[in-house]
Amino acid sequence: MDSRSFAARLLAWFRQVKRPLPWRETGDPYRILVSEIMLQQTRAQTVIPYYRRFLERFPDAAALAAAPESEVLERWSGLGYYSRARNLQRAARQVVETGRFPADFEGLLALPGVGRYTAAAVASIAFHLPCAAVDGNVLRVLARVTGERGDIGSGRTRARLEEAAAGLLDRRRPGDCNQALMELGATLCLPRRPRCLLCPVSRFCAARASGIEEQLPVKLRKTKTREVELTLALVERRGRVLFWRRDGDRARMAGFWELPSVEQLPAFTALSELGTFRHTITNHRYSVRVLRGTLARAPRGFRWLAPAELARLPLSTTARKALALAGWNLQAG
Ligand code: SF4
Predict the structure, then answer these.
(1) Is the shortest distance between the CB of 213 and ligand 1 below 6 Å?
(2) Of 21, 35, 211, 261, whose Cβ has the fewest other Cβ atoms within 10 Å?
(3) Ligand 1 centroid – CA 185 distance (Å)
(4) Which CATH superfamily does the domain covering 226-325 fall into?
(5) Taken in order 265, 270, 275, 276, is the CA torsion positive or negative?
(6) pLDDT (0 to 100) of residue 330
């Protein structure tokens, strides 16, 4: 394949369709790192308000390093995958301790919570280094473009695709090239029904030439999802709602406030069902039912929280969704 023509067509397309996202208006590696960490599991449109609020409060690594963890979690609240926020703060502290922001791939990779993809993305976008950033979207595009039929979950296939990515990278504009491939994967080269007629690189695409674009990439391994049923109790008293806080330093979601489950409140009397919703965290799929009810006395360790406190404290996403069913909207934004 003529990699120069491939990159030229890809970049020309990207210039036309590039969305004006706030992290594309900065060359500050800290801000680019924040955006990349937020984008790891979340769509760009969802990230925008969180990104703005986060940087308003923590405009640089020093501000983030010095902040109490509860404030960091509060600004992250609603984005989910909170270990990302904790790692980001640890990374900021490392930057402050060493007195400089790492400016190469290896240095970035040594920051807590930064994997190969994020290190390559920041290195290429902020420092213009020729590092190919290969995430799930990019793997899919490359598997199709190169006609890769190996299992995308295997290390060997991945290594082949990473090599292909490095070969296709325009070394003069690696940041744009990486972002263009990600954009292509996010908007046209979709998992199902890729929009090949609009694709700027369709003439180079092996899968398209063979008519097998919907069959690639090949995925053999499946992670099992665990179904969990949960019933939450929403107890209100004089405009306050009953909550508990997850403890433990290292536990997932430590420091977050949750609505109690009915099992935690043996004396709870249900009055009505507010509704149900689903929520997925890693490989757990929760079916959550929310009951409104009463309770004579709150057990030890529980707290009545007023709306003003709820807006300030880090709440779990399940708690937010449950409160929304009762008409309390505490979304960040
Ligand atoms: S031609 Fe289709 S399958 Fe190939 S890269 Fe473009 S959108 Fe993806």
Answers:
(1) yes
(2) 211
(3) 9
(4) Nucleoside Triphosphate Pyrophosphohydrolase (3.90.79.10)
(5) positive
(6) 66
